[in-house]
Amino acid sequence: MASRLNPYLSFGGDARQAMEFYKEVFGGSLVLHTFGEYGQSGTPHADKVMHAMLETPSGFVLMGADSPPGTEHTAGNNLSVSVSGDDDAELRGYWEKLSAQGSVAVPFEKQMWGDVFGMCTDSFGTPWMINVVERKG
Q: Domain 8-66: which topology?
């Protein structure tokens, strides 16, 4: 297997809901493992997600988990997940679903560089950048 870079998102207790939402947005196959499955059954966090992986038909891999017990979850502004390509309908669909219950920082519209681009933060606090590359030619 070739090496690949995968975004790994941390959540403060709602990883299952977030990852299921991303499955609705992008499609694909979602695998979830809980802390309870790995020796921490009977604890308050047994049903929380220790590891989740979504593999989509477009070849995206998105991973995530609830913060481990004893670790404080903090959301920062040092990461955005960027999705780009030239399939306007596909990317517009992602934008509509991701921004629907979230907040829009940059409206999804044609930008000065010629592409359609937008930035939003979804309802789980994850920042997204969606870019539809303008076909030249």
A: 2,3-Dihydroxybiphenyl 1,2-Dioxygenase; domain 1 (3.10.180)
Q: Do 80 and 26 meet the contact criterion of CB atoms below 8 Å apart?
A: no
List, for residues 21-75, the tens digit of each pLDDT value: 999 999 999 999 998 888 888 888 889 998 999 999 999 999 999 987 777 777 6
Residue 41: how many CA atoms within 13 Å on its side-chain side?
Answer: 4
Residue at 99: amino acid letter: S
